[in-house]
Design brief:
The complex is a heterodimer of chains A (about 120) and B (about 425).
Chain A: E1 2-9, H1 11-16, H2 19-38, E2 42-47, E3 55-60, E4 63-68, E5 77-85, H3 89-98, E6 106-112
Antiparallel strand pairs in A: 1-5, 1-6, 2-5, 3-4
Chain B: H1 9-33, H2 36-57, H3 63-88, H4 98-106, H5 115-122, H6 129-140, H7 145-151, H8 156-173, H9 182-204, H10 215-231, H11 236-249, H12 252-255, H13 275-291, H14 297-310, H15 319-332, H16 336-350, H17 352-365, H18 372-384, H19 388-401, H20 405-419
Helix pairs in contact in B: 1-2, 1-3, 2-3, 3-4, 5-6, 6-8, 7-8, 9-10, 9-11, 10-11, 11-13, 11-14, 13-14, 14-15, 15-16, 16-17, 17-18, 18-19, 19-20
Chain lengths: ~120, ~425
């Protein structure tokens, strides 16, 4: 089964880190990604840029509305995501628990339906 | 079936078999099908088929195997029907169920007892606590939606929705059907035990309503704990939970009087305790302590309940032993409720003047502000220290927070006695 792991954390934590600390976090993410690839469980994994770079689009009455910023202002922001292919929820939850952001933020684990699209 | 000689012998047999075996049969079907709803539908098909077939051919030698085999065939029929329907409505996306059919056809041989892994699925932490309770009671204990709804004071519709959502999530999110591996078993088992204890507590100290005790839920919680102990032997906390529930439940008859009013532990007629159950509970409480070098919360609570159970009269209670057990419990689990119970034990062991500062400190912290038993304890300590008017105020506050009518009546009587002391 495929699961999306949506990584939420307070992005100011990242901004306040020194470059060495950031490199350390990146390194720990890469270790998880490499391990997932080795096991054939990796589908994709990407960080997202800060919400200050984000734009939101809505179509209302045939008109496209573009606004600055994320869909919703929240204390924790979506900062990256993985898609993994594993046998069951427990395996997906175990991967989520290994992500560095689980220590300071939250990882939402959502199944991707098998018969979508 | 208008000319049914109801209720006939086959019907009664089937009914008895179904009641005794439903949990096991359903667990076996869910384990094969990985789908609660399909398993329930197939089982109910099989039960209808059994009535007709058994009346004709007699009750089979192994009714359970017959029901499982028939339910399997009915599930295959249903899956093939679904597949045919999906082909007709080709636009409709249908889940691929070939795997399920194959698993069904491949599932032969002796039936394993799958209830334990089903319990772990029902109590998966990814499900909401109230859904865990409802699922366990529904699938493993066979309680109907109406019965569970009544027990938890929600409407049957709400309860049914809760069950449907949980079953759907189990399927859609891929919640596994298995006993967790050793590395995570300890933590997950604790989750299962906590859910069972929630069921028990709801049965023992109802959180609302007119009646004080909901016996059925306590009994179901004891059944579930027995199941865990039988299928996962040698676990200190599981045995501790079963012991705790047996010992507390043994006081059931003595805990309320003829009018349905509350009788405190110290004033209970101990001859009305269920002696057989006390004996069993005492043995298990000791076993739970023996099995672990660092006993957990349930084993320690069982040991405390055992101290009470051992005392032939209230005044024989070894309160010093209870205080030291609470010390160990508070070291593991420093929750306000544990500290409150410890303070009550301190009052008995060393005197109310030693306990009141502990309860006052808890009251100041505020975590138990809405918990009526904090104010009950405070009121009783103040009364014993001769501070009557303060005691009455604390008990009045407790009465305003007490959730059940018998508890409110009990407090009203205490307040009346303190306000007009006998000459």
């Amino acid at each position: 089964m495929r699961y999306a792991l949506l990584i939420y954390s307070d992005e100011t934590i990242w901004e306040k880190m020194t470059e060495a600390e950031q490199m350390d976090v990146v390194g720990r993410y890469e270790a998880v990604s490499d391990d997932l690839k080795k096991r054939g469980q990796f589908v994709l994994g990407e960080p997202l840029d800060a919400t200050s770079t984000s734009s939101t689009v809505r179509l209302r009455d045939g008109k496209t509305l573009v606004t600055d910023g994320p869909f919703a202002e929240t204390k924790e922001q979506l900062g990256g995501l993985y898609v993994v292919d594993v046998p069951d929820l427990d395996a997906a939850l175990a991967i989520a628990a290994r992500l560095p952001s689980a220590l300071v933020g939250s990882i939402e684990v959502r199944p991707i339906p098998a018969y979508g699209g | 079936m208008a000319e049914d000689p109801a209720p006939d012998a086959v019907h009664a047999r089937l009914d008895a078999i179904f009641r005794a075996e439903r949990g096991r049969i359903l667990a076996a079907l869910i384990a094969i099908l990985r789908d609660f709803e399909l398993a329930e539908e197939a089982l109910s098909d099989a039960v209808s088929a059994a009535l007709t077939a058994w009346r004709q051919d007699g009750v089979p030698q192994s009714p359970r195997a017959w029901l499982v085999a028939t339910a399997k065939n009915r599930a295959i029929d249903r899956l093939r029907r679904d597949a045919a329907l999906a082909r007709t409505l080709a636009a409709l996306p249908a889940p691929d169920r070939t795997q399920q059919v194959e698993a069904l056809l491949a599932a032969t041989g002796p039936l394993a007892d799958d209830r334990l892994r089903l319990l772990f699925t029902c109590c998966h932490p990814a499900l909401a606590a109230e859904a865990q309770i409802a699922l366990a009671l529904h699938t493993l204990c066979g309680l109907t939606t109406e019965e569970i709804a009544r027990a938890f004071l929600v409407t049957p519709t709400t309860l049914a929705q809760r069950l449907v959502r949980a079953k759907r999530k189990i399927r859609a999110a891929g919640v596994p059907y298995r006993v967790p591996e050793e590395a995570e078993l300890g933590e997950r088992l604790l989750g299962v035990l906590r859910t069972i204890y929630l069921v028990f507590n709801e049965g023992y100290a109802a959180s609302g309503g007119e009646r004080l005790l909901r016996v059925d839920l306590s009994r179901e919680a004891i059944r579930l704990a027995r199941l865990v102990v039988a299928l996962l032997p040698g676990r200190s906390e599981a045995i501790g939970l079963l012991a705790l529930q047996l010992l507390v439940d043994a006081r059931r008859e003595a805990r309320v009087d003829a009018k349905g009013d509350l009788v405190r532990l110290a004033e209970q007629d101990r001859s009305r305790w269920d002696r057989a159950q006390v004996r069993e509970g005492l043995g298990m409480a000791e076993e739970a302590l023996r099995l672990s070098r660092e006993p957990g919360s349930f084993a320690l609570q069982a040991a405390i309940a055992a101290e009470h159970a051992r005392a032939a009269r209230a005044e024989d209670t070894d309160w010093n032993a209870i205080v030291s057990l609470y010390d160990r419990l508070a070291a593991r689990e420093p929750s306000p409720v544990v500290r409150l119970n410890r303070a009550v034990a301190v009052a008995e062991a060393r005197g109310p003047e030693h306990a009141l500062p502990l309860v006052d400190a808890l009251a100041r912290e505020g975590a138990l502000e809405r918990y009526h038993l904090l104010h009950v304890a405070r009121g009783e300590l103040l009364a014993r220290l001769g501070r009557g008017s303060e005691a009455v105020r604390a008990l009045e506050h407790a009465a305003s927070l007490a959730p059940t009518a018998p508890e409110r009546r009990f407090l009203a009587a205490r307040i009346a006695a303190l306000s007009n002391p006998a000459p």
